[in-house]
Write a structure and sequence with these properties.
Layout: H1 10-36, E1 39-41, E2 49-50, E3 53-54, H2 56-70, H3 91-102, H4 106-111, H5 113-133, H6 137-149, H7 153-161, H8 166-179, H9 189-209, H10 216-235, H11 237-253, H12 259-282, H13 284-292, H14 300-315, H15 325-343, H16 356-370, H17 374-383, H18 386-400, E4 409-411, H19 412-424, E5 430-431, H20 440-444, H21 459-470, H22 476-486, E6 490-493, H23 502-505, E7 509-515, E8 518-523
Parallel strand pairs: 5-6
Antiparallel strand pairs: 1-4, 2-3, 6-8, 7-8
Helix pairs in contact: 1-5, 1-6, 1-18, 2-3, 5-6, 5-9, 6-16, 7-8, 7-18, 8-14, 9-10, 10-11, 10-12, 11-12, 11-15, 12-13, 14-16
Length: 531
């Protein structure tokens, strides 16, 4: 049965403050540096990027929110000219778009979700630890720490020492980053909220099935579990798949005696998955993204090195469930993550998010079994958290110091050029060099020809050609033919691409607008002749 204890202990309050500081760390760095170089902060604060473009995912979130603000909450893909329809409804982005429409800046409207994510993720970890350790405050604190800040220790070791090949180190780093729940607050707040709602759904389901609170109380908990499952799946589909598998496995383990109750949250988790399935099969943009996001799973040696020590530690804390829902859910959660990893072809490593919570319980229990001194326990927790956190912090400090990352910082000239495009340019798509193109949709609300590794058609082919054009490496005839083939109405050249394209584009240009070192070329409409 669920154990009781203080809801949030003083140590857990310190851990929640640490989580808040970790979440704010990249944002503070970026804002301070933007002020120092007199640049505009774009709103992206994530460290992982799509095909080398750091912050690209957050720029897509902002683009969806901006597009949703103009289309009743429904967004389309602005990273290609054939962007599909306004068919994407996502609650976070729809609300962000609504706040933007009310007058908030787009970055601020999105960043308001960060404190929500901090509270949700932190309190979910506390509630999960409290369920299994009750008033054992030291054990709870250890479990909360591991739940939020686990980084597989060998991933941190290889990252620090630069051992082995770069591809191996990156794969191991990616595995460690997926396990690190706190890192989802660096730009990926939808993932953080989706992850936080999984323990909420499981704990609410357990309370609903508790023999004591029958009647209206049980119904309320069951509805809470269904809503938590639905929103978790909507915000982060990998959590929806995992939850669905958990409910099915629990129904089997419990010999179907609670299958009708378990079906309620299972349906909640399944509805968004049906929606995403329909999007990926009936909308051109989602078809494209679902194809591009199919990547190879992590090599077996990476899984062995990354998970081997954790499996040995966690195995020591396994207990016989004996029909107890919470104990069954604890073990099934681990298995469901593994199954999701192997059955889902769309960015499989995302399925590993959330494993830190059940592992934290198993690891602390395993430690308790041997009754070792508390100082050794503190050292062990530090070993599997601090090195990885330190490496990630150093990595972001080095990233934030760069003045060339336009996906984070827009120089004044670039910002003025995009403001002019948003307010005065004729309707139509925009052609811009990479990685600057990734910023264009969120800053202008206009589609860009190529700019995102997963959402732009033939990005690996198109991006080098665009960069050749803006780098001045295309002759006049080739440049004109290329621009005509894209059917772009506006070209925007940022301050990292100083070549003047006026002569190369010649009579195809209607007007040229200069903003410091940035230029905007308005092209004449392309006439289509029907043969």
């Amino acid at each position: 049965m669920p154990q009781r204890g203080p809801r949030v202990s003083p140590v857990e309050m310190v851990l929640l403050a640490g989580l808040a500081a970790w979440a704010a760390f990249p944002l503070v760095l970026l804002l301070v540096h933007a002020g120092q170089i007199h640049a505009r902060f774009t709103g992206a604060d994530g460290l992982i990027g799509a095909r080398g473009v750091l912050g690209a995912d957050q720029l897509q979130y902002l683009a969806w929110a901006r597009d949703a603000s103009a289309h009743g909450g429904l967004a389309s893909d602005l990273f290609s000219f054939s962007q599909g329809g306004n068919v994407y409804l996502q609650p976070m982005f729809a609300i962000t778009g609504w706040l933007y429409r009310l007058g908030l800046s787009l970055p601020l409207a999105y960043l308001l979700w960060k404190p929500v994510g901090i509270l949700a993720l932190g309190l979910a970890a506390v509630a999960w630890a409290r369920r299994f350790f009750g008033d054992q405050l030291a054990a709870r604190a250890a479990a909360v720490t591991i739940s939020l800040f686990l980084v597989t220790p060998l991933a941190a070791l290889y990252s620090w020492t630069q051992w082995a090949a770069g591809s191996f180190r990156f794969s191991l780093y990616l595995l460690g980053d997926e396990l690190l729940a706190a890192d989802k607050l660096w730009g990926y707040v939808p993932s953080a909220l989706g992850l936080a709602l999984v323990p909420v759904a499981l704990l609410a389901t357990e309370r609903a099935l508790d023999p004591a609170p029958r009647g209206p109380v049980a119904v309320r908990f069951l509805l809470l579990a269904a809503v938590a499952s639905l929103v978790a799946s909507w915000l982060h589909p990998w959590q929806g798949i995992t939850l669905g598998l958990i409910y099915v496995a629990l129904a089997v383990l419990r010999r179907r005696r609670d299958w009708m109750a378990l079906a309620v949250p299972a349906i909640g988790a399944g509805l968004p998955l049906i929606y995403y399935y329909l999007l990926s099969h009936h909308d051109s943009a989602w078809k494209l993204a679902s194809h591009y996001e199919v990547i190879s799973r992590l090599p077996a040696i990476v899984l062995l090195v990354g998970f081997g020590p954790l499996v040995l530690i966690g195995a020591l804390g396994v207990r016989r469930p004996d029909g107890e829902f919470g104990e069954q859910a604890l073990l099934v959660w681990v298995g469901a993550c593994v199954v999701t990893y192997f059955v889902n072809d769309s960015f499989a490593p995302h399925a590993l998010q959330g494993l830190s919570l059940p592992f934290a319980v198993l690891a602390v229990r395993g430690w308790q079994r041997f009754r070792l001194p508390a100082v050794l326990g503190v050292a062990a927790v530090a070993l599997i958290t601090v090195p990885g956190l330190a490496f990630n912090a150093r990595k972001f400090v080095r990233t934030a110091r760069s003045t060339k990352l336009v996906q984070y910082y827009l120089p004044l000239s670039d910002a003025q050029a995009l403001d002019w495009v948003a307010a005065h340019a004729p309707p139509g798509g925009i052609l811009a060099p990479t990685p600057f193109a990734a910023v264009v949709p969120s800053q202008t609300g206009r589609p860009v020809w190529t700019g995102h590794g997963y959402w732009s058609q033939d990005y690996r082919v198109q991006a080098p050609e665009v960069d050749r054009l803006f780098g001045g490496r295309m002759g006049g005839r080739e440049a004109r033919a290329f621009v005509r083939s894209t059917r772009a109405r506006v070209l925007v050249s940022d301050c990292h691409h100083l070549a003047d394209l006026t002569r190369r584009l010649d009579s195809d240009v209607s007007t040229v607008h200069q903003f410091g070192c940035a230029r905007v070329y308005v092209m004449k409409p392309v006439t289509v002749v029907n043969g």
